[in-house]
Amino acid sequence: MKRSLFIAVLIGAAAAAPAFASLPVGSKAPQFTAEATLGGKVYSFSLADALKKGPVVLYFYPAAFTKGCTIEAHDFAAAIGKYQALDATVIGVSHDQVAVLQKFSVSECRSKFPVAADTDHKIMRAYDAVLPQNSEYANRTSYVIVPDGTIIYTYTNLNPDQHVANTLAALRNWEATHK
Questions:
Q1: Of 3, 10, 25, 129, whose CA is between 20 and 30 Å from 135?
Q2: Domain tally for the chain?
Q3: pLDDT tens digits, residue range 14-69?
């Protein structure tokens, strides 16, 4: 309970601060491999391998099982068919331990997409997706990365409501001009 209250206070304070984009559109996405889980099964996720299949929606979130992160996971899970229709892979990243993410991937992600553990914060730092108020947590930032590794869209906002709609719109715009 204390952890949830702490996260809620952090997110509330951060929501009052202006949102800012992390890595700029047009830059190359930092490559990474991370321990991830899909449907409770642990495996090694490689951004390079995922990009061989199509675009990747990489989203960072502060902590599993908190209110906003649960809403966002439900939203991505509900829209996964739309991402698949665009040949896109969705992956969420947080600082949580993989044991926590195994449960989160089943209950909140509904076994529809993987979530990766960034316990050493290397991925969130590489993507400049660190919560300004507390560097142990990721900021809520979504990226759309196309197969050549270029970031074509980025969105940072602690409110989870627009991340799915915005990333889908970016993917549709890219597909319309590249296929």
A1: 25
A2: 1
A3: 433 334 547 999 999 999 999 999 999 999 999 999 999 999 999 999 999 999 99
Which pLDDT score, from 0 to 100, does residue 178 have? Answer: 87
Q: Within 10 Å of residue 100's Cβ, how many Cβ atoms? A: 17
**Distance from C-alpha of 17 to C-alpha of 100, rounded to nearest angstrom:** 29
Tens of pLDDT along 18-33? 345 479 999 999 999 9
- The whole-angstrom separation of Cα 65 and Cα 102 is 12
With tokens 């040949």, the residue in question is 87
Which CATH number fits the domain that encloses residue 47?
3.40.30.10
pLDDT of residue 21: 45
How far is the CA of 9 from the CAs of 6, 14, 49, in angstroms? Answer: 5, 8, 37
149: containing domain? 2-178
